[in-house]
């Protein structure tokens, strides 16, 4: 009985799946989104380094302030002594995304994976090239909201990717674009 129930949820049964979207289109979406997110993150950090070196900019009163920080850790600078660990985990995350994207057939999964790669790649670049040195570099953060840690474009991309991944998972959409229908 258990084997029959598990078999009904597999994607090999044509009655429980929908046709995948064309992988070429999905990979193009992935590539464009990843590149756009990565470039936006790096460009915004370069702007922050030059424009915010000696002052804050109140963009929307105290609701949104551009405030330059160099973060060695995670949110709220927690784990500052684990920068090498964060760098290593980022490298693993990049490799996992590149492995998973080989199967992408869903535009929303392509969007999520592109945002994830662009965001992780942006922060990883900081950890690799910024002071105090490779694998220990501090991430440039500059967006400040009340009662929230200072963050950057890469962080926004990573969080948006996480939301899309959760939504796609709850919808039963697989990376390749097939939908798994629950057994009734």
Automatic annotation (TrEMBL):
<keyword id="KW-0378">Hydrolase</keyword>
<feature type="transmembrane region" description="Helical">
    <location>
        <begin position="82"/>
        <end position="101"/>
    </location>
</feature>
<keyword id="KW-1003">Cell membrane</keyword>
<keyword id="KW-0472">Membrane</keyword>
<dbReference type="GO" id="GO:0004190">
    <property type="term" value="F:aspartic-type endopeptidase activity"/>
</dbReference>
<dbReference type="GO" id="GO:0005886">
    <property type="term" value="C:plasma membrane"/>
</dbReference>
<feature type="region of interest" description="Disordered">
    <location>
        <begin position="1"/>
        <end position="21"/>
    </location>
</feature>
<dbReference type="GO" id="GO:0006508">
    <property type="term" value="P:proteolysis"/>
</dbReference>
<protein>
    <recommendedName>
        <fullName>Lipoprotein signal peptidase</fullName>
        <ecNumber>3.4.23.36</ecNumber>
    </recommendedName>
</protein>
<comment type="pathway">
    <text>Protein modification; lipoprotein biosynthesis (signal peptide cleavage).</text>
</comment>
<feature type="active site">
    <location>
        <position position="155"/>
    </location>
</feature>
<comment type="similarity">
    <text>Belongs to the peptidase A8 family.</text>
</comment>
<feature type="active site">
    <location>
        <position position="141"/>
    </location>
</feature>
<feature type="transmembrane region" description="Helical">
    <location>
        <begin position="28"/>
        <end position="48"/>
    </location>
</feature>
<keyword id="KW-0064">Aspartyl protease</keyword>
<keyword id="KW-0812">Transmembrane</keyword>
<feature type="transmembrane region" description="Helical">
    <location>
        <begin position="108"/>
        <end position="125"/>
    </location>
</feature>
<keyword id="KW-1133">Transmembrane helix</keyword>
<keyword id="KW-0645">Protease</keyword>
<dbReference type="InterPro" id="IPR001872">
    <property type="entry name" value="Peptidase_A8"/>
</dbReference>
<feature type="transmembrane region" description="Helical">
    <location>
        <begin position="145"/>
        <end position="170"/>
    </location>
</feature>
<comment type="function">
    <text>This protein specifically catalyzes the removal of signal peptides from prolipoproteins.</text>
</comment>
<dbReference type="Pfam" id="PF01252">
    <property type="entry name" value="Peptidase_A8"/>
</dbReference>
């Amino acid at each position: 009985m258990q084997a029959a129930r598990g078999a009904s949820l597999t994607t090999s049964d044509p009655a429980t799946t929908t046709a995948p979207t064309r992988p070429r289109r999905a990979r193009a979406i992935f590539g464009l989104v990843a590149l756009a997110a990565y470039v936006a993150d790096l460009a915004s950090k370069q702007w922050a380094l030059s424009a915010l070196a000696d002052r804050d900019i109140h963009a929307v009163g105290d609701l949104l302030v551009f405030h330059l920080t160099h973060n060695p850790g995670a949110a709220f600078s927690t784990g500052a002594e684990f920068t090498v660990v964060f760098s290593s985990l980022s490298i693993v995350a990049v490799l996992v995304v590149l492995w998973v994207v080989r199967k992408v057939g869903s535009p929303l999964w392509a969007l999520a994976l592109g945002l994830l790669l662009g965001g992780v790649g942006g922060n990883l670049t900081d950890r690799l090239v910024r002071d105090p040195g490779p694998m220990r570099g501090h991430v440039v953060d500059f967006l400040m909201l009340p009662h929230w840690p200072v963050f950057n474009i890469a962080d926004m991309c990573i969080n948006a990717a996480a939301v899309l991944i959760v939504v796609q998972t709850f919808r039963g959409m697989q990376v390749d674009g097939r939908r798994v229908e629950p057994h009734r």
